TrEMBL record:
This is SRPBCC family protein. Pfam families: Polyketide_cyc. Residues 11-127 form the Coenzyme Q-binding protein COQ10 START domain.
């Protein structure tokens, strides 16, 4: 099971970073490359513990849907979302926010299991893990840019 971990320093208070990361509208804005949008469940505003959201996006040239549920939330430091249905066999995405002098360290920890057994393992090594890492890093950089420009 691949585990992708990425840390991003953001020159903004922890509560702002936390709220931006769980904001459905901001999620859509920071994933514009894949045209991600919420189509069911919570489709705008801030996600809370127990909320579910179905995302529709284009990955690898195909329209895909994925439903995730927020299973844990400790404001403003941690929230966890897990896949309920979607292209992966499973995933758990832990979002952590740590106060740091002059800002916040945002940590994404994305653990997933690909579908299709051995074929999925090969896909991870050939392209999927790199793709997912780049997706997470791109979103983190976009969140940083938004958070650091809030007045």
């Amino acid at each position: 099971m691949p585990i992708i971990e990425h840390q991003q320093f953001i020159k903004a208070p922890v509560d702002i970073c936390f709220d931006l990361a769980r904001n459905v509208d901001i999620h859509t804005q920071t994933t514009s490359k894949t045209r991600e949008r919420a189509v069911s469940g919570v489709t705008e505003g801030l996600l809370e513990q127990g909320d579910m959201v179905t995302w529709e996006a284009f990955h690898f040239g195909m329209k895909q849907r994925l439903t995730a549920k927020v299973t844990e939330m400790e404001k403003p430091h941690t929230f966890v979302d897990v896949m309920v249905t979607g292209a992966f066999h499973s995933f758990v995405h832990t979002h952590q926010f740590i106060n740091e002098a002059g800002g916040t360290i945002m940590i994404d920890k994305f653990q997933y299991k690909s579908p299709f057994g051995l074929i999925g393992v090969v896909a991870d090594k050939v392209f999927l893990e790199k793709y997912m890492r780049e997706f997470i890093i791109s979103r983190a950089k976009a969140l940083k840019k938004i958070a650091e420009n809030i007045e």
